Amino acid sequence: MQQLSIKEWNDEVKDVEGKSIAGALELLEDMEVSKDALRYVSSLTEYARKLYLATLWIPDKKQRHEIGTQICIHGIGIKLLDDIMDHDSSMDVREQILGVYLTQVATANLCRIANGTQLMDWIKADYKNIWNKQLVELKSPPSDLDTWLQIAKAKTGQFLGCYATVACLAADRSKSIDNARAAMEAIGVLYTAKDDFEDYGKPDEGDGNIVNVLRGGNYTKAEVHSFFTYWYQKGMQSLAQQHTATSIDLTFEVLYRKCLTQGAKYMEAITPE
User: Are the beta carbons of 21 and 48 closer than 8 angstroms?
Assistant: First the structure.
């Protein structure tokens, strides 16, 4: 099978993120939400782009589009609910709760495509841990790297892994689930670190930010570099088994390098010699 170039993949992602945002907006407009709410959801294109990575193990473009659009709408619904928990949006909370509606519609649509029982079992199991780790972090922010990692693996890694599993099931590619989940877990860890570095210093960034965790733990230069390298290599090994984009590893390498270079902005110990 001929794989996509990075340009072809990026063009496809742009198309699907547009369709998924439009789909979410249409559902919310039917609920007569405010213009502020619609503007906020319209801004979530990068969020949808990250979610679409879950479809990398689906070789058929039409299937990727159909499944990926519903995955993105579901994830946007989860984003609205997550914002309620961490006060990360200016949206009216009474409108944010409609994230439940987005997830319900997307789940129903995915169940029409796939084995609904099997798909729901995975979503139930994954989200039990995802929401648990969200509550744990809010009540007791991580103060060491091991605890930070467990939260990152769940909140972003398992989050993306859940959608990769859904994508594989919907496309009848269950043999790809293990590789897909491993890759998404690694990407999730690095995405969480990157976001922490970018958000460090903002008023709502507390003790659980990875910069504070690394500084407080007195980690050595070698330990920090080895940590990010391990997750990069683990992700690359699993990404090699995906079926879609020829050079998606370059995108992953950029993410890895950002973790090193952005960390260096706050800690001399973050980069290798």
Answer: yes
Whole-number pLDDT of residue 248: 75
Q: How far apart are CA 51 and CA 69, in angstroms?
A: 9
Domain for residue 1, yes or no? no
Tokens of 127: 């989200």
C-alpha 234/C-alpha 243 separation (Å) is 17
pLDDT at site 272: 42
Among 152, 159, 135, smallest CA distance to 86 is for 135
Q: Write out residues in the chain with pLDDT < 70, as ranges.
A: 1-2, 204-206, 246-247, 263-273
Question: pLDDT digits over 213-261, tens only?
Answer: 887 877 777 788 888 999 999 998 888 888 777 667 777 888 888 888 8
Please give the residue range of the domain that contains residue 218. 6-270
Question: Residues 6 or more apart from 189 whose CB is under 8 A from it?
Answer: 149, 152, 153, 156, 157, 231
Cα–Cα distance for residue pair 259/250, rounded to 1 Å: 14
Q: Considering only CA atoms, which of 101, 119, 229 is closest in space to residue 169?
A: 119
Q: Does any domain span residue 108?
A: yes
Q: Taking the mean position of all CA atoms in its chain, how far away is CA 233?
A: 18
